From TrEMBL, chain A:
Superkingdom assignment: Bacteria
Signal peptide location: none
Circularly permuted ATP-grasp type domain ranges (all copies): 71-448
SUPFAM superfamilies: Glutathione synthetase ATP-binding domain-like
Record InterPro entries: ATP-dep_Glu-Cys_Ligase-2, CP_ATPgrasp_2, UCP005522
Name this polypeptide is given: Circularly permuted ATP-grasp type 2 domain-containing protein
TrEMBL record, chain B:
Domain DUF403: 1-309
PANTHER family xref list: BLR5612 PROTEIN, SLL1039 PROTEIN
InterPro entries named among the record's database cross-references: ATP-dep_Glu-Cys_Ligase-2, DUF403
This protein's name: DUF403 domain-containing protein
Superkingdom of origin organism: Bacteria
Pfam families listed in its UniProt record: Alpha-E (PF04168)
Signal peptide (from-to): none
Length: 472, 313
């Protein structure tokens, strides 16, 4: 594993500074006790109901995302740099979205090809000329980062639609606090528990300007069979707001209202965890039972805030991703602090030729894919898989991008055989409102539990870890 | 509160109460079979009927046997009222209304489902039946304790209570409906040993044996038992007690929301069938008709609550 940067250990086997307390703790702990604690953690997660449903499985059995008890640690100075880069990127994304749905200066300036916008499935013409309250498009963002060296971080992708996973960030910390209180008295870790309060405040600050008094906020979920239902309920509960489904809502007198035991009540801010196309059967997918007929009309008239705004998907589209360094520079006037992974757009003939020649070394992703589905990891693929993918690429090159296979950093997990390094990524969560940008220190660390695997998605055998950002 | 949430709370409570009632019926059925010299299967017909699942059973099986009846009541997922089905439904409703529940209540319901689903995945042999039924009792009791100890006394609590007492009254009503003939004072059967067995069964099915002996001693006349189960307000499963709770909780809601809804008037009318009445009057009126009438009213109240508080669109 010496090819990879290990976040816990120096090459000589000693602990890196940020991990010195953790290292000492693990050294002194009884392995049997840690094992018992690991089981205990699982029991807590099950009882709390922190489970997810796997799509496409007949019995729709609820599964647990495996939790690893060894925390991932980030030093205060590392975090400061990261958060500057994240803030810059998120500001640029919001400016980009406003521009794309208004004057499209970036296209006029020749920095982004027009077809990247107009021909993009994630582009919503219904949003043209619409200015969301406070000009905020992405109220909640998750930026996926990977690390390849002590000072090398890359943005792997931006999640500007409805990023999930924040409940795991919070529950992982709660679980660690419950099981290893002694660790937190030795090491000063920055808090994450303010997130729900900050989320509510941030959403309320984005209420339509006509709102009087304390804005009524609600969370819109597709329902109890959605894979992220636990998170939707958790966030509504923690914010102290209603958790609604499409059939609880209807448009009345120009407002979106929820059916309460005492009649219909207007909602000011809707944190929706339903995709754009299901949001409004009158304006988008007519078969959707998850949305609210007419909500887009209310939205365009300024009667409700939808978070995130419809049409934000164009900012996290994988083809647009490759333009992000330009986008950041165009809107902030600064060089991007966070690096992009070099990306070949297979729609371009030269890039396609390169990708086809070097497929065995590259990671190829679908432009609109997510969750680790439909992607190829060249170095791990068989000859047959490579050939099959080559055919797909030739058939629809515009559907794919390719990137070099990054040497993702590792953090040890507590495996059956003891500590064992596994690849990780990091999804920090960002809140945007007219009051400012708030980044929770840390985020969700996802870890590929299978030895050597680079895929961290929970649907593909990934687990999670508590993520610590140390105090100064 | 969302209308849907009120509905979820109401049904969560109903399903939990039903699980407990069905467990009690199973216990009684099992005991009857054991105390019979011939271990007769025919005792299970009335049990299925009392649980309101006989029709469903007959669509699957041609004859009533002990093993099939137990399986149908306990764990058949084709039976929407089997213990396994209602625990799952209680848990689904709890998930739906997760934001209205305390962690204590949610984890008690979720824990009940986890443990029972684990136990009921496989067929339960006669030897293990008592333990499984005990587990149902234990887990539902834990949920009740969590509700009593951790929930705010507001509209959320009221909807839980309404569900509980509608279901309980319905259950007691159905037991009395199936067995009403045993309670009728006829010159022929009074004091015979058959009667004692039947009365014992009724008291057990309702979980009222201890309370009965405590308050009525060794008297076991039909009218005493009927009086106890229908009119005694100290008895938390009597029809009178349940209907008074409906009046109270609908009253709290009216006060909380500032409006009295039609369901409150229906509940008050139901309570008047018990309040200040004598059991002899009820016998004169006709016990069977009386019970039928109560069951019909309960159905109406339940439907009216759904409308009044906008459970559905």
């Amino acid at each position: 594993m010496t090819d990879f940067f290990d976040e816990m250990h120096n090459p000589d086997g000693s602990f890196r500074t940020a991990y010195s307390e953790i290292g000492q703790w693990i050294g002194e702990e009884d392995v049997a006790r840690l094992r018992a604690k690991q089981r205990e953690a699982e029991e807590v997660f099950r009882l709390t109901g922190i489970t997810f449903n796997v799509y496409g499985q007949a019995d729709a059995e609820e599964r647990l995302i495996p939790f690893d008890i060894i925390p991932r640690v980030i030093s205060s100075s590392e975090w400061q740099k990261l958060s500057r880069g994240i803030e810059q990127r998120v500001r640029a994304i919001n400016a980009f979205l406003h521009d794309i749905y208004h004057r499209q200066e970036i296209v006029r300036a020749g920095r982004l090809p027009a077809e990247m916008v107009i021909g993009n499935e994630a582009f919503l013409p219904q949003m043209l000329g619409v200015s969301p309250p406070g000009r905020v498009y992405t109220h909640i963002v998750g930026i996926d980062l990977v690390r390849t060296g002590p000072d090398e971080f890359y943005v792997l992708e931006d999640n500007a639609r409805t990023p999930s996973g924040v409940s795991y960030m919070l529950e992982n910390r709660e679980t660690m606090l419950k099981m290893f209180p002694e660790l937190f008295s030795k090491t000063r870790v920055q808090r994450v528990s303010d997130y729900p309060t900050n989320l509510r405040r941030s959403l309320a600050a984005c209420a339509p300007s006509a709102t009087s008094g304390d804005p009524t906020v609600a969370v819109l979920t597709p329902g109890i069979y959605n894979s992220a239902y636990y998170e939707h309920a958790f966030l509504a509960d923690q914010m102290g707001v209603e958790l609604v489904e499409g059939h609880d809502l209807r448009v009345r007198d120009g407002r979106v209202c929820m059916r309460t035991t005492q009649g219909y009540k207007a909602i000011d801010v809707l944190y929706r965890r339903v995709d754009d196309e299901y949001l409004d059967p009158l304006n988008f997918n007519p078969d959707s039972a998850l949305g609210v007929p007419g909500i887009m009309d209310v939205y365009r008239a300024g009667g409700i805030t939808i978070a995130n705004a419809p049409g934000t998907g164009i900012a996290d589209d994988k083809a647009i991703y490759s333009f992000m360094p330009d986008i950041v520079e165009f809107y902030t006037g600064e060089k991007a602090i966070l690096q992009n992974v070099p990306t070949w757009r297979c729609s371009e003939p030269e890039a396609l030729a390169y990708v086809l020649d070097n497929l065995h070394e590259l990671v190829v992703k679908e432009v609109h894919g997510s969750g680790g589905y439909g992607m190829l990891i060249g170095p791990a693929a068989s000859k047959r898989e490579l050939a099959a993918f080559r055919a797909k690429l030739k058939a629809k090159p515009g559907n794919y991008i390719a990137q070099p296979t990054l040497s993702l950093s590792t953090v040890p997990i507590f495996a059956r055989s003891g500590l064992a390094p596994r690849h990780v990524d990091l999804r920090p969560f960002v809140l945007v409102s007219p009051e400012g940008i708030n980044i929770t220190p840390g985020g969700l660390t996802r870890v590929a539990l299978k030895k050597g695997s680079l895929v961290v998605n929970s649907s593909q055998g990934g687990g999670t870890k508590d993520t610590w950002v140390l105090e100064d | 509160m969302l209308g849907k949430t009120a509905g979820g709370l109401f049904w969560m409570a109903r399903y939990l109460e039903r699980a407990e009632n069905t467990a009690r019926l199973l216990e009684t059925g099992q005991r009857m079979a054991l105390t019979r010299s011939n271990g007769a299967d025919e005792e299970w017909g009335p049990v299925l009927q009392t649980a309101g699942v006989l029709q469903g059973y007959q669509s699957k099986y041609d004859e009533v046997t002990k093993d099939n009846a137990i399986d149908w009541l306990l764990r058949d997922t084709e039976n929407p009222s089997s213990i396994r089905s209602v625990i799952k439904q209680a848990r689904d409703n709890a998930r739906l209304v997760r934001t209205a529940l305390t962690y204590e209540v949610w984890s008690a319901v979720n824990g009940a489902w986890m443990r029972l689903e684990d136990q009921l995945k496989r067929r339960v042999g006669e030897r293990d039946l008592p333990n499984v039924l005990e587990l149902v009792r234990e887990r539902t009791t834990l949920v009740r304790g969590a509700i009593l100890g951790s929930m705010m006394r507001n509209d959320i609590y009221d909807f839980l209570r309404l569900g509980t007492f509608i279901e309980r009254a319905d259950n007691v009503g159905r037991i009395l409906d199936v067995k009403y003939f045993v309670l009728l004072p006829t010159a022929f059967s009074v004091g015979s040993s058959l009667d004692n067995v039947q009365w014992e069964i009724i008291l057990r099915s309702i979980g009222a044996g201890g309370g009965y002996r405590m308050t009525r001693g060794q008297k076991s006349g039909a009218s005493d038992i009927a009086d106890f189960l229908i009119l005694d307000e100290r008895m938390p499963r009597s029809l009178s007690f349940c209907s008074r709770k409906l009046v109270e909780n609908l009253g709290y809601l009216a006060k909380d929301y500032g409006t009295e809804m039609p369901s409150a008037a229906l509940a008050t009318a139901l309570y008047q069938k018990f309040d200040g009445r004598e059991i002899s009057e009820i016998f004169e009126q006709g016990l069977h008709e009386y019970i039928q009438d109560v069951l019909t009213e309960l159905g109406k109240i339940s439907a009216q609550i759904e409308i009044d508080y906008r459970f559905n669109e």
